[in-house]
TrEMBL record:
Species per Swiss-Prot/TrEMBL record: Candidatus Saganbacteria bacterium CG08_land_8_20_14_0_20_45_16
A Pfam family recorded for this sequence: LacAB_rpiB
A biological process from GO: pentose-phosphate shunt, non-oxidative branch
Lineage: Bacteria, Bacillati, Saganbacteria
InterPro entries, alphabetized: RpiB (IPR004785), RpiB_LacA_LacB (IPR003500), RpiB_LacA_LacB_sf (IPR036569)
Name of this chain's protein: Ribose 5-phosphate isomerase B
Family: Belongs to the LacAB/RpiB family.
Gene this protein is translated from: rpiB
């Protein structure tokens, strides 16, 4: 699985933590930046990641900002992207099972390392259920 990563300054530290986790799990990723704590605008990083996922260059994306809100709003503007701002493993799991979410957004200023890692692990290992009712609902969004 190839994963695209991106953050602003508010999500930078958590992105670095999650990169270590992905390396440990031998999961392939590309980091679209940012690469420091210097203030930047989250759409400059969230759009490239979301577009790369929408084009099929990456199976999934993980975005980080201070709250997870800004990158979620941005990613969901890209057709084909279903982004979730997950604050717990329940939401992470349901976003995959029911929503087939292909971008996970995390709040670097709100989540501990342990909680964020659990959310990422849950989200990455959970498949879309494929149930007819969920497909029907997702098709309605697409249309
Ligand atoms: C940046 O200060 C902050 O607004 C951003 O990281 C994010 O939390 C926006 O939703």
């Amino acid at each position: 699985m190839k994963i695209a990563l991106g953050s602003d300054h508010g999500g930078y530290k958590l992105k670095e933590i999650i990169k270590k986790y992905l390396q440990h799990k031998q999961l392939e990723f590309v980091d679209f930046g940012t690469d420091s704590l210097q203030s930047v605008d989250y759409p400059d990083f969230a759009f490239p990641v979301a577009e790369a996922v929408a084009k099929g260059e990456f199976e999934k994306g993980i975005l980080f900002c201070g709250s997870g809100v800004g990158v979620t709003i941005t990613a969901n503007k890209v057709p084909g992207i279903r982004a979730v701002n997950a604050y717990d493993t329940y939401t992470a799991k349901q976003s995959r099972q029911h929503g087939d979410c292909n971008v996970l957004c995390l709040g670097g200023r709100r989540l501990s390392k342990a909680k964020a890692t659990k959310i990422v692990a849950t989200w990455l290992r959970t498949d879309f259920s494929g149930d007819e009712r969920h497909l029907r609902r997702l098709k309605k969004i697409e249309r």
